[in-house]
């Protein structure tokens, strides 16, 4: 393990690859390197290996079919732009990642459909009353992320999907933050399309998957060869698919004990940080993932804190995108009802496999020191 890993607190952005998954990936890249479309034994061997992985992943997810993609973003795009849909509007939550909200908007414009963003409450939970009201109009697709990447809010997907299906709409969920953290079964959740990204669960970067349930279908959004039944042309990366599946199985194997461990670490950290004037966890009153801690630190610009912590070797993050030096308030925080100024003062600390009490204490001390200094500098 790299010596500085205990200072990494940005597991919601990406995770270090699991060494077993990396080894299996490399072995597959070397042994089963053939092009799955090639008409010879090397191609056939790679194709066989990929189909074994695809079938196992589909079964793990309760899916009918899995399409491998290059990223989670691409899996979301394939669902939003490519899903075969009935007539009607497209509904998404107000706190979707741009990998969902942008293609959803594009699809609606392209097809001449209405596009509606549904509100969430102060804890980041989709307002089911608003969903019910919106579903009065003909609806083609409801897309709600399983858990939010900025503050971890977990959505009642089963209820959302049941309501959407009752009016004949399709359901897509970006499960990029929950895959590997929770067992996901599309039949139980009742969703038609589910997007995953391997690098969020200790798998390799550069591979994602779109899982399809029941009779859900997509049209391709990329055009080229006949790979993956033409639905996602381009030579498949068998090694990365192998790495994705193994990483997912390995994180799931310990998800219960790991979730309990991280929830306990986070509870102590949040309790201690709340001793600091005005500091408050975001969304802590609702169901949320155990490893994401979003902290509002009033009067301290998140970007300044992140820079100072980075200079001390810590990796933490925020939801605000920094454009030309000017931090923009996070859309997610605004959707929770936060004022624009406060929304720029939220940092995200996300825990994972290499997080421990000692590292978190060191982070806490560093945070306390710098936030006091920054507050002293503020006018
Ligand atoms: C909720 C969510 N959706 C989509 C993405 C995009 O995934 P990828 O980086 O694999 O394209 C991310 C990554 O930050 C995410 O957190």
Overview of this structure, please?
It is a single chain. By secondary structure, the protein is α/β, with parallel strands linked by helices. It has 2 domains: 5-15 and 254-377, Alpha-Beta Complex (Aspartate Aminotransferase, domain 1); 19-252, Aspartate Aminotransferase, domain 2. The chain contains 13 helices and 12 strands. The strands form 3 sheets. It has a 7-stranded mixed beta sheet, sandwiched between helices. Strands 8-9-12 form a 3-stranded antiparallel beta sheet. The protein has a two-stranded antiparallel sheet with strand order 10-11. Helix 3 runs parallel beside helix 4 and helix 9 (255-273) runs parallel beside helix 13 (357-377). The longest helix has 21 residues, at 41-61. It starts with 18 loop residues before the first helix and ends with a helix. The model has no long low-confidence stretch (mean pLDDT 96). The structure holds pyridoxal-5'-phosphate. Pyridoxal-5'-phosphate binds at residues 71-73, 76, 97, 99, 145, 149, 174, 176-177, 197, 208.
Briefly summarize what is shown.
With 379 residues, this protein is α/β, with parallel strands linked by helices. Helices cover 41% and strands 13% of the residues. Bound molecules: pyridoxal-5'-phosphate.
């Amino acid at each position: 393990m790299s010596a500085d890993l205990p200072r990494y607190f940005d597991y919601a952005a990406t995770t270090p690859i699991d060494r077993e998954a990396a080894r299996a990936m490399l072995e597959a890249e070397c042994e089963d390197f053939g092009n799955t479309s090639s008409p010879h034994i090397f191609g056939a061997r790679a194709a066989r290996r990929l189909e074994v992985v695809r079938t196992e992943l589909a079964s793990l997810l309760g899916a009918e079919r899995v399409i491998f993609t290059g990223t989670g973003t691409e899996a979301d795009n394939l669902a939003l732009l490519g899903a075969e849909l009935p007539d009607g509007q497209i509904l998404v939550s107000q706190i979707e990642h741009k990998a969902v909200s942008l293609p959803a908007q594009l699809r609606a414009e392209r097809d001449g459909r209405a596009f509606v963003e549904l509100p969430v409450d102060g804890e980041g939970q989709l307002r089911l009353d608003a969903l019910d009201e919106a579903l009065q109009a003909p609806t083609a697709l409801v897309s709600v992320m399983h858990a939010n990447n900025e503050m971890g809010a977990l959505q009642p997907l089963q209820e959302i999907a049941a309501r959407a299906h009752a009016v004949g709409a399709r359901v897509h969920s970006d499960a990029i933050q929950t895959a590997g953290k929770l067992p996901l079964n599309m039949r139980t959740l009742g969703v038609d399309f589910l997007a995953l990204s391997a690098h969020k669960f200790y798998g390799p970067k550069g591979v994602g998957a779109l899982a399809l349930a029941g009779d859900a279908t997509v049209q391709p959004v990329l055009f080229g060869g006949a790979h993956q039944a033409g639905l996602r042309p381009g030579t498949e990366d068998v090694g990365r698919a192998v790495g994705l599946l193994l990483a997912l199985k390995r994180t799931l194997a310990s998800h219960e004990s790991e979730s309990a461990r991280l929830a306990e670490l986070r509870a102590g950290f949040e309790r201690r940080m709340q001793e600091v004037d005005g500091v408050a966890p975001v969304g802590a009153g609702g169901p949320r993932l155990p490893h994401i801690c979003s902290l509002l630190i009033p009067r301290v610009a998140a970007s300044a804190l992140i820079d100072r912590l980075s200079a001390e070797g810590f990796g933490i993050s925020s939801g605000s995108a920094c454009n030309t030096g000017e931090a923009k308030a996070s859309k997610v925080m605004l959707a929770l009802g936060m004022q624009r100024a406060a929304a720029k003062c939220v940092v995200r600390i996300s825990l994972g496999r290499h997080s421990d009490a000692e590292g978190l204490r060191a982070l806490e001390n560093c945070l306390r020191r710098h936030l006091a200094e920054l507050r002293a500098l503020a006018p």
